[in-house]
Each structure stands twice: as C-alpha cells, then as structure tokens.
Amino acid sequence: xxxxxxxxxxxNLGIFFNSLxxxxxxxxxxxxxxxxxxRGRKDGYESWVPLGNLDQFPSGETRxxxxxxxxxxxxxxxxxxxACWVRNVDGKNYQVFAINCAHLGCPVRWFPQSSLFMCPxxxxxxxxDGSRASGPPERGLFQYHYKIDAGRLLIQAGEMPxxxxxxxIVKGIQPCA
Amino acid sequence: xxLISSIGEWLDERLQLASTIRETAEHVxxxxxxxxxxxxxxxxxxxxxxxxxxGILLALIYVPSAGxxxxxxxxxxxxxxLGWYIRALHGWGSxxxxxxVLIHMIQVFLFGAYKYPxxxxxxxxxxxxxxxxxxxxxxxxxxxxxxxxxxxGIGASIASRVPVFGPLTxxxxxxxxxxxxxxxxxxxxxxxxxIPGLLIAFVGVHLLxxxxxxxxxxxxxxxxxxxxxxxxxxHELTKQDGMPFVPDxxxxxxxxxxxxxxxxALCAYHFGPFGPSGPPxxxxxxxxxRPDFFFLWLYAILSYLPASMETPALLIGPVVxxxxxxxxxxxxxxxxxxxxxxxxxxLTVLLxxxxxxxxxxxxxxxxxxxxxxxxxxxxxxxxxLKNRTALERQGALVFQEKQCHNCHSxxxxxxxxxxxxxxxxxxxxxxxxxRQVIQGGGNMPAYGKNLSPAETTALVAxxxxxxxxxxxxxxDASRTxxxxxxxxxxxxxxx
Lengths: 177, 495
Prior knowledge:
The complex is a heterodimer of chains A (about 180) and B (about 500). With about 180 residues, chain A is an alpha+beta fold. Chain A has helices at about 1-35, 35-45; strands at about 45-55, 60-70, 80-90, 95-100, 110, 115-120, 125, 130-135, 145, 145-150, 150-155. Chain A folds into 2 domains: about 1-35; about 45-155, Rieske Iron-sulfur Protein, CATH 2.102.10. The radius of gyration of chain A is 25 Å and the shape is elongated. Chain B is mostly helical. Chain B contains 21 helices and 4 strands. In chain B, the strands form 2 sheets. Chain B has a two-stranded antiparallel ribbon. A two-stranded antiparallel ribbon of chain B has the order 3-4. Classes of the chains: A alpha+beta (about 180), B mainly alpha (about 500).
C-alpha cells in the first residue's frame, strides 16, 4: 500500500515537472505569437515617408501616389507598395487619403469629373474632401498626417487603416450628413 | 495469392488490427438506413481525401511567399505538366466539399439525426462545417491574387471592429501592420497545418461516434425519441431488421462517392482552375474584388446592412448563428424525427436556403456597386436622344460627363446603385429633380458644388424628358396657378 502511494506521488511529481516545463515554455511561445502586436505597440509602425515632389500634385487636383511601406520584409514583393490619394486643395493645403474604403478596406477610385471617390466593392462614395457621400461607409475616408519638407510631400504611414483602429496617425473626418 | 495471405497474417499477428477493422466494417445498421439519403457524409470524406492528395501535390510547386506565390501559380497553370488540372481539382474540390457538407447537414437536420444520443456527433459536425469554411477561406488567401489581397483587407476591416481588441486582432491576423509576406505565411500555416489537423481530428471523432452509436435509423412519423427507451429500441431494430454495413450497405456510398469524384474531375477539366486574377499589387486599384462562391452571400449582406447595424451584425450575427447550431440538440434532443411532422424544421431550412441563394444571386450581379466605366463605356440609348431639344441633349452630355450613368441605368444599361431613370420625370417634378441633383439625399451624393447652374439646368431638362410616350411628366400644380398655364408647358416638353 505504501509503495503504491509512493508511486502515485512520483507520478504526480512527474506531472508537476511537465506542467512546470509547459508553463516556462508557454512564455516564449506566446511572446513569439504576439510579436506582430508587441513590436508595433512598442516602437509604432508609423514613420514619415516621402510621396514625391510637390510639383507632382497640381493645385486643385487629386492624384494617385504610391510609397514603399516603411515596415517591410525582403519577401513582401509588391504587397509593400501602398497607394494613396493626394488632394492639393489650394496650392498650400493638402489632404492625403488612404486608398482603403472606410467601410471594408477596398481600393477607392477617384473620378475627377464628378469629384467623387467610389468604391467598387459595396458601393461607398465620398466627396472630394473625403467626407462620406453615400453608401455603407459610416465615416469619411481615412487621412494621413502630412508635412512638407524641402519641396517634398511626406506622410506618416506604415499601418493599414481599418474602421475600428484607433491608430495615432490616421485621423478621421467627421462624417457628412 | 497464398503469399499475400501469409504476409497479411504475419502483419496482423503483430498489428492485431484485423478483428477491430472487421468488427467496425461489419457493424450492423438498420436495413432502411441503407438509403441514397445516407451517402453525403462518405462523399464529403472522399472529397476530403482528394483535397489532401491534390493539396500535397500543389505544395510541391507552390511558394508561400508574398513576392513569389502569384508567380508560382502562373508556373503551375502554364509550365508544369497538368499543373492547371491539379489546381482545378483542388479548387473545385473545395466548392464540392462545402456543398456536400451543407447538403449532409441539411439531411441530418431534416432526418432528426442530431437527437439523442447523437448530440455530440452533430456538435462535432458543426465544428467540421466551420473548419471546412476555414479551409475554403484560407485556401482563397493562398491563391494570392487581387481578390485574395482585398479579401484580406475586408477580413481585417471586420476584425478591427471588435471592441477594444480590434487593432490587436488586425495585427495578429495580418502578422504585421499591413497585408504582406507575414500574412501569407500565417495563412499558409493555417491552411496546411492547423486547420487540416483540426479537420482530421474532428473527422476521426465524428466517424468514431457514428460507428459506436450506430447510424441514425430511418425516421418514421410518430416514432418518438425518448432518452429512457431509445437505445433499447435501436438495438431491437438492428437485431430484427439489420444488416452489416460492409458489404450490404456500403455499395451505395461507394457508387455515390465515385459519381461525385467523377463530376468533380469533369468540372475541373471543363471549367479549369480558379484564377489567379491580377497580381497582389495594391497600387493596381483598377480592380473589383470578389469573394469565392461560398462567401458571396456574405458579400451581399455587407452591402445591404445599414451603417448603424454593420458592426453589431458582423460581430454578433456569426456568434448567434453558431450558438444556435450548437445548442440545437439540447433544445430538440428528443421527440419527433421525421421531417413530415416537423414543419418548422422544413420551413427553417427553406428560409435559410432561399435567403442564402438570393444573396448569392445578388452578389453575382452586384447591383449595389457603381458600374465604374458606364459614364465612358455605355452610351445613352438612342431613344432617349431622338427628337430632343439642344438643351436636353446637352443635359444628356452632363449625365454622362458627371458619371450619373455609373449609378443610374437607362434602358437597363448602366449602374443599378440608384433607381433606373427611364421614367424619372413621371416620379419627380422639375423642382424635385433640381433639389435631388443639388442636395442629393436618399443615399445619393449631392452634386451642388460640382455642377454649374447651366449644367444643372441642362441635366434637369434631360431628366424631365425621361418619361414614357403618352405619359405626361409630373408637374407642380401650384406652379401652374402661381405662374400661369404657359409655365407648365415649359416645364414639360412634349413627348
């Protein structure tokens, strides 16, 4: 009887040792899995990226611009090339809109004739200042912060804007009625 | 022959499996269960085996790298001998598998097979449906083209709506801040290791329970399931009127599986592989992303949900749906099995089927999407330009130039986002037309800032000419009184 309980004790000890190792190993595993989150939250994914010289964006017009995402891996291929819409409002002020529809992220297209952005997926439409015109989006287009430095237009970019994201760079505009 | 049997005996002396396999194969089933209605589960299994084989074959060539995946699919399609056919088999296999799993589920539901003691078999089946859909979605991502790229964007946008954890969820889903290499790698791991592992485990448990608990008997109207007596009744049934699964019943499963696999092979040969569509380059924005067939219904729902309903519906809807399926055997675990005495069950299936079919059908035509090139690619039909004044024709030009045609159709051509305008003059008076064009509303953008007074006048004149011959356009009676009869004539040109 004593030897049996001794063996049971040894078995429980064995389970305990394995549980201990499991808990210890869980730390690196979870840390590894959370790497996309922890890396971005610590240093931030965003940084200033140039979109090109100001003369590429004539006054009163809205043009497509592309940039290489600042956070990139060698094997990302074309996926790290991101597009955005640059609106030169009056020669001094600019608006830089994310390409992603504020509804579910499809690429919006600019139609200069009707001064509307239209989304091909679920039919969202926005006015030239990015405010919501019609369709399912709950808000206007996402805008990047921009600055002008030595004749170049720079935006603060690095993370895909999504409707629920409280990202510090992508500011929203008040939705238009 | 003697050699084979002696090898077999040698193996079984060490494996000790032959008797277990024989017992399993020859387990007794109720005679009436050997029916053409009970063949869908085994057909789904057959397609699953095909998916494993073709999936491994594709993995020999496919490169799970954001920079190379699309190129490796092109190589599969064009350079590897019959690579296109293996891709077609895997793609069609996916559609076939989802379809058969759904049919299997409907059959099980209508035949009351989820009732005691097979509740857990049903619950595992619900998980099997979910992992099958997970395979279909992750497989669509591995076909790393434009549809996959923007489909991931939609997935991320939905995930971002989760309260508090939204942004974290997006980063975890994408493996980083944007859709890129890390995203494809993790979907590859999901599609090739994680979900298939779950699928195999669930299939194992599902089949084990089918064998241990016995297959559902043919439901007879009036024969009720009671927990106290069911097991005894089932054993009596199989004893009195049973037969071994192998070989008496399995031939129907084999015939049907062969038919399904043959149809699948034929579809793959005739229709070929799915895509890939354009390369996953997010700077190419001339694209209209579409999900694969079995997610089209969701695409339609996302277009029709009002903005205020969207986040709750997206986040709560799936939870409610899955919970309802999981809890079904606990609320209806006893009682009538036959669909003949369960009108509510039949109506539920019909309602869900009709709803899903309708949404799928709508998503194939996407009436909610503007036709992006209608303004430049689809001319206004002649009948709307004949015998019109110069002003009205100028208005027709404005109609095209300002892209009204992208959302409004004339003679069934053009966008379906807004109402057709063939007879708009009958519905709206001149004042109402002006107001609608300038201020928008009712889900139409306002064009006030974008139209000169001359353009508005011309456009409204054109719109007022849009009414059937012999039906006079709407007019404001008060205007006639206030401004005199001649003004009424000016507002409505003769047809």
